[in-house]
Design a protein that fits this description.
This protein is an alpha+beta fold and 69 residues long. It contains three helices and two strands; from the N terminus they run ααββα. Strands 1-2 form a two-stranded antiparallel sheet. β1 and β2 form a beta hairpin. The longest helix has 17 residues. The protein is globular and about 50 Å long. The termini are far apart.
């Protein structure tokens, strides 16, 4: 849920709301209503592709893996 994401990411409520809205609107995550009072967020296939791309970029930028320009 939103609170768990907020604490894990160490962000304020307004920050996490902004980013979750953006990610939902871009199709990277979706809201899942668990019951009337609880909403969870689930990564979509597009979101998984984004995470893989980010992981690949981070791996390429690690020291020793690429030549210095």
């Amino acid at each position: 849920g939103k609170t768990e994401i907020m604490y894990t990411a160490n962000m304020s409520y307004s920050q996490i709301q902004k980013y979750l809205d953006y990610l939902v609107n871009q199709g990277f995550i979706r809201k899942v209503e668990l019951d009337k009072s609880m909403i969870a967020y689930q990564v979509t296939e597009s979101g998984l592709n984004l995470l893989r791309a980010i992981d690949n970029l981070v791996a390429m930028m690690e020291p020793g893996l690429t030549e210095q320009i």
